[in-house]
Structure formats: structure tokens, C-alpha cells
Write a structure and sequence with these properties.
InterPro entries: ACT-like_dom_sf, ACT_dom, Chor_mutase/pphenate_deHydtase, Chorismate_II_sf, CM_dom_sf, CM_II_prokaryot, G/b/e-P-prot_chorismate_mutase, Preph_deHydtase
Bound molecules: prephenic acid
Order of helices and strands: HHHEHEHEEHEEEHHEHEHEEEHEEHE
Shape: globular
Structural class: alpha/beta
Number of helices: 12
Pathway: Amino-acid biosynthesis; L-phenylalanine biosynthesis; phenylpyruvate from prephenate: step 1/1; Metabolic intermediate biosynthesis; prephenate biosynthesis; prephenate from chorismate: step 1/1
Catalytic activity: chorismate = prephenate; prephenate + H(+) = 3-phenylpyruvate + CO2 + H2O
Strand content: 25-35%
GO molecular function: prephenate dehydratase activity
Mean pLDDT: 94
CATH topology of the largest domain: D-Maltodextrin-Binding Protein, domain 2
Number of strands: 15
Keywords: Amino-acid biosynthesis, Aromatic amino acid biosynthesis, Cytoplasm, Isomerase, Lyase, Multifunctional enzyme, Phenylalanine biosynthesis
Low-confidence stretches: none
Length: 356
Amino acid sequence: MSDDLLKQHRDAIDALDLKVLQCLNERAEHARKIGEIKGGGVIYRPEREAQVLRRIKDVNPGPLSGETVARLFREIMSACLSLEKPLTIAHLGPSGTFSESASVKHFGHAANLKPCVSIDEVFRTAESGDVDYAVVPVENSTEGAVGRTLDLLTQTPLQICGEVVLRIHQHLLRNTPSLEGIEKVYSHAQSLGQCHEWLNTHLPDVERVSVASNAEAARLAAADARFAAIAGDAAAERFNLTQLASNIEDEPNNTTRFLVLGPHDATSSGKDKTSLVMSAKNQPGAVHQLLAPLAERGVSMTKFESRPSRIGLWEYVFFVDVEGHSTDAHVVDAIEALKERAAFVKVLGSYPVAVL
Ligand SMILES: O=C(O)C(=O)C[C@]1(C(=O)O)C=C[C@@H](O)C=C1
């Protein structure tokens, strides 16, 4: 390419950058005005954010991919929202966990993060109003449900207002670039489970030790060359560790789903989910009878999970996700019918299906 041609393209980029800059600030000005109209009301509007991101993906002509433009607009909205009111998000810490990555993926980099020591503390912090929203893991494609989150959901006054789906890549991390002489591998129990086969093949005789978080495992590995950790990119970066082996999760589509909790749920975005928890009366065929109103009204179930109720021996509660919003006529109808049949029903919230 000639120098002339290069200069022409760079001049064009310089001119476009000024336009982009002007558009960004005009957009931010509108967001600020919207903030004034909202007054002291709810600033974060998950349904509107989902609609903005879906539209951008739909109308995107390329060559940038839909995923890429959606990520860029995620950050633009994050910055615009912070002009209206900076948000603080509680998540399972310490810094470097997948919960932190999920929080950033959903709220963008302008949000302030508050790492908490346990899932219980994440709930407590959000319930006390110390933070605006919380992000908690709820299920992993390899390891299944996160029981503590499900248990706390049944009791909390918080509502689910969003979901985040995160691809989980696990790496073997150490502070020295060799697989020789590793005495222990630290990680969170879920992550050790996700890499079970890899560990059996590559480090069969090394002791596996579960700790409170992957970030804690990375911290231990950073402090002592005898130890390795299994953790993700964020922890590797934070503790400056070498990736001795990358993407060691047994299941190639290893994915964790997180819930966003807050004092309100979301209004309808046009493509939503509703989460419910209920218990069946203790009699034969009760679960089948309980769920029949959903099928009869054409409400699709996207998740069904049972959990001991912790009240009576061999009694269970059921976590059910359905397609649609709790204000959609057929969902309203189905919930009414469920209430007649179930011993207990709680609507945990309606929220947009994850876009990113
Ligand atoms: O539309 C709004 O309610 C806004 O506040 C604007 C905006 C945006 O930047 O598009 C910002 C924050 C909200 O969560 C949703 C959208």
C-alpha cells in the first residue's frame, strides 16, 4: 500500500472519529436529560437496555460482528447511565472471580463493583440497600445448580431483573512456567469439578484442594511456587500468573448463568423470562398436576430444578423458568392456576433474555 493511500484512510478515520465523538456526547446528553425526567425514580432500565442491544445487532450491516457492536454499545450505555447515576453492584469476590466478569459483562466498566465474601453476603448487601444491584451464579452447564443461590432466592425480597450467560474457560495457573513439582492444585469446588477429567489425565497424583473462590486459589498459587490454581483469565491477570495449560474445562461449552437481583424486576422487553419457585402438595402425582397449567396455556418451561425444602423431610421446592413476562396474559393466567394448585408460589421476577 502506498503512503498516500494510507494517509487517505487515516484522514478518513480522523474525520469519522470526530463524528463518533460528537454522536457519543449527544447521546450522553439525552441520557442525562432522561435521568432528570426520571427524577429520584428507577434509573437502570434492563428492558430498554436489552431492546437497544437487540436492535443494534439486528440492524448491524457489518463488517463488525453483531457480538462486537453489542459489546461496544454495552459500554456506551454503561457510560451514559453513569451520568444519570453511578451504579454499585455486589458480587461474589474477591476481585478476579467469574462473578466479577459477569457483572462487568452485564453492567459495563462504568459500574462500581463491591466484592463480597460469600453468596449470603451478596444477598444481604443488596437487601440492605448498600448497593444498587447484585449478581449471583445460579447454574453451570457441567456442575448444575448453585444450591445456596436457590435457597436464598426463596426468602429474599429482591427481584430478578436480568440474567448473564458467561462462557467459562478454566486455566492451570502457576507463578513459574513448568508443570514439574506441583504439590497441590487449588480452586473452587465447582471449578475442580469442571476440570475433573483433565486433572485425572494430566495431574493424577496431585492433591486437589477446594477453596472459597478461584481468585483465592490464584492468590495462593501466586504466593508459593509449590502450588497451582485453576481459574480464569481475570484471576490470571490480577495475580500475574502463567497459563501452563489453557481451556482445560472438560465440557467444551462450559457456561455459567448468573442472575441480576435488585429492588424491582424489569418491565416487558418483548423477549423475556419469568422465574418462579413453588412447592407441591405432598400427594401422589402432585408435581405433574402442578405443572399442567403451564402446558395447557401454551407457556414454555425453559428450566425445572428441584431442591429439598429444608422444612420437612423429603419435601421439595421447584424452581421453574418460563418464557414470557409476568404481565403477558397467558403467563398471568398460568400463574393464577398454579397458585390454586400449589402449596406455595413466589414469582421471583421477569427479565429480558440475555442478549450478550
Ligand atoms: O432510556 C433510558 O431510560 C436511559 O436512561 C438511557 C439508557 C441508554 O443509555 O440508552 C441508559 C440507562 C438505562 O438503563 C437505559 C438506557
